[in-house]
Amino acid sequence: MMQRQIHLKPQDLLFSLQFKPGDFGSIALVSGQVHRAKMCLERLENPVKNFTFLGYTFWTGFYKGKKITVGNGGFYAPDSAFVTELLCAGGIDSLIRLGSCGALREDISVGDYILAASIIRGDGATRYYVDGDFTSRVDENLNSVLEEAFRDAGNLHKGGVWSTDALFRETREIVNSYIAKGAIAVDMVTSPFVTLANLYNKKAAAILAVSDNLITGQLGFADYRFFEAEMKMTDLAFRVIDDINVVPEHEKKQA
């Protein structure tokens, strides 16, 4: 029988990957898709690879004097929870997810943006961390900055995001039950991303490009409007960084 309290802590894994305290910046831009992470990487000055593990890679560099971390943080709830916990344990203060989602309203089109205002947990990973009545909360200040930056970028919708584990079980009965709970979009990541940040007392927010619509049946995974929205999302994310106050590195070390 297992005698230890826990087999592996995030700090243990970071240490095994030769990560040192202070290697991460204060802000992280976290994508599911590798190509989005690399678009962010291209904007950093003097980036250093923090680690590569199980297909997840993070780099830290500077943008206008601010130390920023970027990388691909998972496609699904389990790997997103795992990577988000590593980032939080590694000292990230503010986490912004640059993701994608399916729309749950007829008036939301491929290439539009969803700003997560509330989180509706339908995933299995967060059940290992919190009780069923736990409310995962995005950071209102980050959301305000994101809303301001994306307001004129296209069609921006703000509302509930439901995270599920079962892409091919988005049936009418299940989908409609989550729409009734306030969901206007569905993905497989935002719930663990925000929930784990909450548990570590970190700030988290999510902006998502719409790739498909469950109400109209529209599939836009290869649609140019979706790709344009992804590219524009990267540009705007760095505009958001301009408006986020960070603690200078020397002050962090003194704290």
What descriptive keywords fit this protein?
alpha/beta, five-stranded mixed beta barrel, Rossmann fold, globular, 9 strands, 255 residues
Overview of this protein structure:
By secondary structure, this protein is α/β, with parallel strands linked by helices. Helix content is 32%, strand content 29%. The protein has helices spanning 10-16, 34-41, 77-89, 140-150, 172-179, 190-199, 224-242, 249-254; strands at 27-31, 45-53, 56-63, 66-72, 94-103, 113-122, 156-164, 183-187, 203-213. The chain has a 5-stranded mixed beta barrel. α4 links the parallel β6 and β7. The termini are far apart.
Brief characterization of the structure:
The protein has 255 residues and is an alpha/beta fold. The chain has 8 helices and 9 strands.
